[in-house]
Amino acid sequence: MSALGTTAPETGSDAPTTTSPPTTADGVALWEIAAASRVLDVNSRYAYVLWCRDFAATSIVARIGERVVGFVTGYVRPERPDTLFVWQVAVHEVARGRRVAATMLDDLVARVGTPFLETTVTDDNAASLAMFAGLAERTGADMERTELFGPAELGAEHDPEFLYRIGPMQLTPTPTRG
């Protein structure tokens, strides 16, 4: 695992990938990456800028050079201060296949230091399910699944969101890089 803010070589590129907490200046890039993903529920530009201001300590961005190429947004649950909730994870297409999402998750888990992580994933999102299962494996944690929100909360047009609870995690995950 890279230490937060350190660099790692990119596959097929000389430019390093770095991770750091987001700044408000990164908010528009987060919004653009979310919209380009075509799978995330996209919020307003304002919401992403505000998120970068108020939840920078529990979120992370990945950069290649100065360009934001990925993000993880999260927060510590007020009623469960031992739990980091990961809200969205996205990687721009230019950085896919380079383990950017896994690196961001590992760096964020190490920085925040909570023993548990929660997230919601729909059943059709195999990539996210594999990414979070990989995190559980790297951190020596269990992963439990329960339905959190179904049609009653989200409407018939939205697939049910299943809650994945990972933990307790070792705070130093096994490296994601080979």
TrEMBL record:
Pfam families: Acetyltransf_1. It is an enzyme of class 2 (transferase). Residues 11-23 have a biased composition (Low complexity). Transmembrane segments: none annotated. GO terms for molecular function: diaminobutyrate acetyltransferase activity. SUPFAM superfamilies: Acyl-CoA N-acyltransferases (Nat) (SSF55729). It comes from the Bacteria. Residues 1-23 are annotated as: Disordered. Residues 1-10 have a biased composition (Polar residues). Its EC number is 2.3.1.178. Residues 17-174 form the N-acetyltransferase domain. Keywords: Acyltransferase, Transferase. Coiled coil: none annotated. One of its GO terms (biological process) is ectoine biosynthetic process. Pathway: Amine and polyamine biosynthesis; ectoine biosynthesis; L-ectoine from L-aspartate 4-semialdehyde: step 2/3. Belongs to the acetyltransferase family. EctA subfamily. This is L-2,4-diaminobutyric acid acetyltransferase. It comes from Pseudonocardia broussonetiae.
